[in-house]
Amino acid sequence: MILVSHISDFVRIEIVPATSFSRMSELQVGQLFSDTVAITDDMSPPHLPNKVLSTPDMVRLIEGTCLFGVQSHLDDGQTTVGIHVCVSHSAAVASGEEVRVAAELAEIDRKRLVFNVKVTHGELLVSEGTHQRFIVGN
Fold first, then answer.
1. How confident is the model at residue 4 (pLDDT cuts 50, 70, 90)?
2. Which of 1, 50, 82, 117 is the most buried (most CB within 10 A)?
């Protein structure tokens, strides 16, 4: 890439390798990411008689939606790690049913990403809250 800047009567031309620009600039507040997932028996707590989505597996689905949603917007060698989760779990979803996990990128603070998240089963609200991830790597 070639950058051209004008300084008074002089023209300065600088050749900058394209790899010096971060793909992270593609991330924008308001971007939406979602996934639809079928609940399986192995996502259920072993101590319950009914097979339903466990809270840890629901959080895993939320983290995965956010992780894979932003991954293509990061530079090679970069990824994200979860640093904070604050969500409710207000309804049961049985094995064999589907949930939709939706995440909206609400804030970008340097390498910290904040998502507003929601899990639904049809019209039923299963979970809502926030999730934060941090960009690591090169």
1. very low
2. 117
Q: Is residue 120 part of a domain?
A: yes
Say which DSSP state 97 is in. -
pLDDT digits (tens, 9 = 90+) for 67-110: 999 999 999 999 999 999 999 999 999 999 999 999 999 999 99
Domain count, the chain: 1
pTM for the structure as a whole = 0.83
Query: CA distances (Å), 66 to each of 19, 55, 132, in order?
Result: 25, 17, 9
Tell me the residue range of the domain where 126 lies. Answer: 23-137
